[in-house]
Amino acid sequence: MDDQRTTKGVDMPGWRHRVTVHEANDILEYLTKAVEDVPPAIYCDDEGTCYFDEGPNPFTQAIERVLNEIGEQGWELVQLKFRPGQMICFWKQPQ
Fold it and tell me: Counting beta carbons within 10 angstroms of the beta carbon of residue 29, is it exposed (0 to 12), middle (13 to 18) or buried (19 or more)?
């Protein structure tokens, strides 16, 4: 199958997609130092909508490390969704 698509005479690359699910404990492994008595960095309601409090803080920096690690492999983040205890990432990269 051809990995190029044509739209109105313009060659467009096809995309590969990837979904990654990161558990809270996995993200905490990216902390660069022990954290003591730090208030939560992310608040989530019952419907899965999450909010960040003030940053930067060690928790948001750990999330950045997770995202950068996959981004350095050539994947582009398309969307990120938080669920209680999880971060779900949707990625794409040209074929």
Answer: exposed
